[in-house]
C-alpha cells in the first residue's frame, strides 16, 4: 500500500459547502464563527481555517477581517470557445455582462502585444481596452488589438456575435503575477489570483487580432466540452 | 534498432497474445529472458522498449514490466495526448497514489453524479510528475460499482482508462472547467510550491453517451505546466485542447 497522506482538509471543504447549501445561504450571508463552526464539524480551529482558506482562494467565500466569513456571489460561467467574442456567449450576456472603456494597460501586456505576430507598429494597431464586469462585479481587464487592414473585412472583430468559420484562434491560459496596480480596477484581495488568457485570431494564415485578458481566475468558470470520437 | 530486437519483441508479443504473459501480470525479468531466449541484455531491453512504445507493456519502477492494455495513462480520458506532449518536452510522466478511499457520495458527489447520498464511491488522489518534477494533483471520484474490485487495483500500474474500458464504460463527453485558485499545506508541499501560491484548477466531468456521469476529477496544476493542460485551438467553430490533438 502506498504511503497515505492526510487530506482531511478536502473533507472539511465538502462539509462547509454542505452547510452553505443546506442552510440555503445567499451571497453576502455570513457563515458561523470559527469557534461555532469547528465545534459543529468536530475539528480543530486550525483544521477548519485551512479548509476555509482553500474556499476563499477558489472564490466561494471571503473573509472580512474582524468580522467573519461571507458567501461570495456565484462564479461567472464563460465559454472558452467564445472567450474573445463575449457577445457570442449567450450565457455570459444573460448573467449581466458589461464593459467599460479604460486607458490603463500593464507594462507586460503592452510588451506582449508590441512583440506579437502582428506586423503593424503598436501605436498603429486598432486597440480597445475594457474592464469587464458581471452584475457589477469586475471579472477582468481585456486588451484587444486589431490589424488596421483587417477592419474593412471585420469592422469590430471582437464584438462580433457571428464568428466566421474561416477564423482560426489559438488560445493560451497562464497564471499572471499579482500586481499592485491591478488591485484597484479589479477590486482584488490578496486571496484572488489572475489568469492571462491570450487569444490570437488568424485569417488566411495572417494574424489579424490579439485579445489579451487578465481574468480574475477565482471569479470565473471557463468551460469547454469535448466529445470523443466513437 | 537491430533486427533481433524486433524479432525478440515479436516473440514477447506472441506470448502476450496467447496469454502466456497474462494481462495484469509482469513478464519475466530481463535476466530471465536473456537465459530463455539466449540473446544479450541490450537486445531484450530494446525489444521491451518497442513493446512499451506500442502500449503493450509498462515498466513500473521497483516492480517489473507489466502487461497492460494500452500505454494511455491516467490522463487519457481527459487529455489524450498529455503524455505525448510531456515526452516531447523531455519529461517521463509518472503518477503516484497519495490516498484512496471508499466512501459515500455525500452532499458533494450526490449532486455531481445525480445519485442518492449513500451511494458507494471510490476516491483516489494522485500526484503527477515528470522526471520527479511535480506537475499536478488529481482528485478523482467514480461510482464504486463502476469498476469491479476497485480496491484491489494497483493504480500505479493501471490507468482509470484501462479500467473503464475493461468494465465496458465508454466515455463520450468530457466537460472541463478552468479557473485559478491557491494551494496550501500538504498540497503546496507536494507540488513544490510556496504556501498560498496560485495554481490553475480544472474540474473535469466525464460522461457516457447516455449522459451518466462516470468520473469527476479536480486537478491542481503547477503554473509552469499550465500549457500542457490549458492551451487550445478553435477551428471551424470547434474548440480543441492541444493535449487532445495527438
Give a structural overview.
The complex is a heterodimer of chains A (230) and B (246). Chain A has helices at residues 8-22, 34-41, 45-57, 90-94, 107-114, 180-186, and strands at residues 61-64, 68-71, 76-79, 97-101, 126-134, 137-146, 167-176, 194-203, 206-216, 220-227. With 230 residues, chain A is of the alpha+beta class. Chain A has two domains: 8-71, Winged helix-like DNA-binding domain superfamily/Winged helix DNA-binding domain (Arc Repressor Mutant, subunit A), CATH 1.10.10; 76-223, 3-Layer(aba) Sandwich (Chorismate lyase), CATH 3.40.1410. In chain A, the strands form three sheets. Chain A has a six-stranded antiparallel beta sheet with strand order 4-5-6-9-8-7. A two-stranded antiparallel sheet of chain A has the order 1-2. A two-stranded parallel ribbon of chain A has the order 3-10. In chain A, helix 1 crosses helix 3 (45-57) and helix 2 crosses helix 3 (45-57). Chain A is elongated and about 65 Å long. Chain B is an alpha+beta fold and 246 residues long. Chain B is built from eight helices and ten strands. Chain B has helices at 3-17, 30-37, 41-54, 82-88, 106-113, 160-166, 185-190, 226-230; strands at residues 57-60, 64-67, 93-104, 120-130, 133-143, 171-183, 197-208, 213-221, 232-235, 238-241. In chain B, helix 1 (3-17) crosses helix 3. Chain B is globular and about 60 Å long. The mean pLDDT of chain B is 87. The chains are: A alpha+beta (230), B alpha+beta (246). At the A-B interface, helix 1, helix 3, strand 7 and strand 10 of A face strand 3, helix 5, strand 6, helix 7 and strand 7 of B. Strand 10 (220-227) of chain A pairs antiparallel with strand 6 of chain B, so a sheet runs across the interface.
Amino acid at each position: 500500500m502506498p504511503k497515505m497522506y492526510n487530506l482531511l482538509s478536502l473533507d472539511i471543504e465538502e462539509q462547509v459547502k454542505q452547510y452553505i447549501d443546506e442552510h440555503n445561504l445567499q451571497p453576502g450571508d455570513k457563515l458561523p464563527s470559527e469557534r461555532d463552526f469547528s465545534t459543529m464539524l468536530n475539528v480543530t480551529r486550525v483544521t477548519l481555517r485551512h479548509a476555509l482558506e482553500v474556499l476563499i482562494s477558489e472564490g466561494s467565500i471571503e473573509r472580512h477581517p474582524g468580522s467573519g466569513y461571507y458567501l461570495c456571489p456565484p462564479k461567472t460561467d464563460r465559454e472558452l470557445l467564445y472567450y474573445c467574442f463575449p457577445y457570442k456567449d449567450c450565457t455570459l450576456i444573460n448573467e449581466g455582462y458589461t464593459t467599460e472603456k479604460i486607458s490603463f494597460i500593464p507594462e507586460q501586456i503592452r510588451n506582449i502585444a508590441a512583440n506579437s505576430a502582428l506586423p503593424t507598429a503598436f501605436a498603429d494597431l486598432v486597440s480597445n481596452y475594457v474592464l469587464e464586469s458581471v452584475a457589477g462585479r469586475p471579472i477582468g481587464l481585456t486588451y484587444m488589438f486589431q490589424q488596421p487592414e483587417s477592419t474593412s473585412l471585420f469592422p469590430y472583430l471582437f464584438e462580433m456575435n457571428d464568428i466566421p468559420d474561416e477564423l482560426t484562434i489559438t488560445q493560451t491560459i497562464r497564471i499572471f503575477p499579482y500586481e499592485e496596480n491591478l488591485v484597484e480596477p479589479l477590486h482584488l484581495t490578496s486571496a484572488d489570483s489572475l489568469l492571462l488568457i491570450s487569444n490570437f485570431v488568424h485569417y488566411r494564415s495572417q494574424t489579424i487580432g490579439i485579445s489579451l485578458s487578465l481574468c480574475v481566475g477565482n471569479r470565473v468558470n471557463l468551460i469547454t466540452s469535448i466529445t470523443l470520437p466513437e | 534498432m537491430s533486427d533481433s530486437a524486433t524479432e525478440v519483441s515479436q516473440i514477447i508479443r506472441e506470448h502476450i497474445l496467447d496469454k502466456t504473459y497474462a494481462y495484469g501480470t509482469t513478464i519475466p525479468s530481463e535476466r530471465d529472458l536473456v537465459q530463455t531466449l539466449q540473446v544479450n541484455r541490450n537486445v531484450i531491453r530494446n525489444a521491451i522498449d518497442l513493446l512499451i512504445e506500442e502500449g503493450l507493456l509498462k515498466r513500473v519502477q521497483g516492480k517489473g514490466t507489466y502487461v497492460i492494455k494500452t500505454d494511455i495513462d491516467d490522463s487519457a480520458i481527459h487529455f489524450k495526448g498529455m503524455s505525448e506532449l510531456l515526452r516531447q518536452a523531455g519529461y517521463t510522466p509518472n503518477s503516484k497514489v497519495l490516498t484512496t478511499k471508499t466512501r459515500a457520495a455525500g452532499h458533494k458527489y450526490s449532486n455531481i453524479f445525480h445519485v442518492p447520498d449513500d451511494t458507494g464511491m471510490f476516491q483516489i488522489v494522485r500526484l503527477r510528475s515528470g522526471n520527479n518534477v511535480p506537475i499536478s494533483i488529481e482528485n478523482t471520484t467514480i461510482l464504486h460499482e463502476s469498476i469491479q474490485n476497485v480496491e484491489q487495483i494497483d493504480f500505479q500500474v493501471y490507468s482509470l482508462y484501462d479500467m473503464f474500458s475493461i468494465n465496458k464504460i465508454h466515455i463520450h463527453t468530457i466537460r472541463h472547467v478552468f479557473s485559478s485558485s491557491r494551494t496550501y499545506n500538504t498540497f503546496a508541499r507536494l507540488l513544490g510550491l510556496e504556501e498560498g501560491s496560485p495554481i490553475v484548477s480544472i474540474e473535469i466531468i466525464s460522461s457516457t453517451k447516455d449522459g451518466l456521469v462516470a468520473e469527476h476529477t479536480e486537478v491542481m496544476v503547477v503554473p509552469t505546466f499550465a500549457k500542457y493542460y490549458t492551451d487550445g485551438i478553435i477551428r471551424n467553430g470547434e474548440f480543441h485542447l492541444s493535449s487532445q490533438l495527438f
